[in-house]
Specification:
It is a single chain. The chain is mainly α and 396 residues long. It has a single domain, classed as Ribonucleotide Reductase, subunit A. The chain is built from 17 helices and no strands.
Length: 396
């Protein structure tokens, strides 16, 4: 931009030298350390038989870890539960990253309408390309594993759009889903022509991915802590844990800088724009208000997962009859366990981290700044919801 010519805006990102340096550094390092080729190669090379007998994650990152099922499982069954954590966790990440691809473009459209925002858009373009590689790898591996183990899907699903509920197992209804789809369409329409809301999508993205950053760091250590010789023979899913964490670290940096610092270069928000962001933050709280013993680190509403877990118990991996499967559901979901308390600690840590993340946004509503909705969770609330659902559960 020639600074001597009059422009439509009085503020410029180029006047915020510190933010520009952060964005330039993030783009340069993400480009240099881009793991797209490595993830694509890993997905092509994956053969389940090559790594079906080993853990892919740290032991406590296993499906239903710390529940009676885990305590009673054989060593071979525990290996499968560890691998199914990988499948289920990344099935949820696929859903989130599909939404990210769409909304990155909405955000870029809203910001590119102003002068000097190409740097932000270039970061988002690279990230969307990386997300497509992530999705392909997660789907390729997850579907291959479930086909080998069950001959059908449990946690994976065909490709979907962002208008499906982002949370795979959610406390929702058909009416709520309809309203949610309308809200997404409305936000996309407005934000594509509104620079402030376009930037604040990255604030919401940062919130929604902050817990993932913490969990994925732990998953990556299963590969990162190996010596060089051991890394060469590490299971491909463990390598993907590391590759994905590295990419997502740069994505989180983008979210933080654009969501919290770039708004200094945009006109102050109107009351309506603040209201929209407050609603989006509350939506994040709603989606992350639950703890899950199925996948510690993903905020699923476990009553909605009961049919899938029942199917797992009846599968050849565990071989339970109907009565045994129902009894195990009651033991895992209707009673306190080490797994439940671990999941509640994860969810509480997430709530505290989210509150710290939005602390600079002093105009947010108090319940959003404090993450009060998320912090209402408890073992008693979790068990009451599950026990009600268990009483109503009538499998075929």
């Amino acid at each position: 931009m020639h600074r001597g010519l009059t422009q439509r805006q009085t503020l410029s990102l180029l006047d915020d030298a510190a933010t520009v340096r952060k964005l330039e550094f993030n783009l340069r390092r993400n480009t240099e350390l881009d793991h797209t080729d490595a993830i694509d190669a890993a997905a092509r090379d994956f053969v389940y038989a090559d790594c079906r007998d080993v853990y892919w994650n740290p032991e406590d990152y296993s499906l239903l870890w710390g529940t009676p099922l885990w305590e009673q499982a054989t060593p071979a069954q525990r290996v499968v539960l560890n691998q199914l954590y990988w499948v289920a966790y990344y099935a949820q990440i696929v859903s989130a990253e599909i939404a990210t691809i769409f909304l990155n473009q909405v955000s870029a459209a809203g910001l590119y309408a102003l002068e000097d925002f190409r740097l932000v858009c270039d970061n988002l373009d690279l990230e969307s390309r990386q997300e497509r590689a992530h999705i392909n790898a997660f789907k390729t591996l997850g579907e291959a594993v479930e086909y080998e183990l069950f001959g059908e899907r449990l946690f994976t699903y065909p490709m979907r759009s962002l208008f499906d509920h982002t949370m795979i197992y959610a406390d929702t209804t058909a009416a709520r889903n309809f309203w949610r789809r309308l809200q997404i369409r409305g936000f996309m329409l407005i934000a594509s022509g509104n620079a402030f809301l376009a930037s604040q999508y990255l604030l919401i993205r940062g919130l929604r991915t902050l817990n993932g950053k913490l969990v994925q760091h732990q998953l990556s250590r299963h590969y990162l802590d190996l010596d060089e010789a051991a890394r060469a023979t590490a299971p491909i899913p463990s390598r993907i844990n590391y590759y994905h964490f590295m990419d997502e670290s740069f994505h989180f940096n983008t979210s933080r800088v654009v969501g919290l610092e770039v708004p200094r270069s945009i006109a102050p928000p109107s009351r309506f724009e603040r209201w929209v962001v407050d609603r989006a933050v509350r939506g994040c709280q709603d989606d992350h208000a639950n703890a899950s013993v199925v996948v510690n680190g993903i905020f699923w509403y476990d009553p909605a997962a009961l049919p899938t877990i029942y199917k797992l118990f009846r599968s050849k991996v565990f071989g339970m009859d109907r009565g045994e499967a129902l009894a195990m559901l009651d033991a895992c979901f209707g009673r306190e366990s080490e797994g439940l308390h671990a999941a509640l600690r994860t969810q509480a840590t997430a709530a505290d981290s989210y509150a710290a993340f939005v602390e600079p946004v002093n105009w947010l509503a108090a319940d959003n700044r404090d993450m009060r909705h998320m912090k209402r969770n408890s073992a008693a609330r979790y068990l009451a919801n599950n026990r009600t659902a268990l009483q109503r559960f009538r499998p075929a």
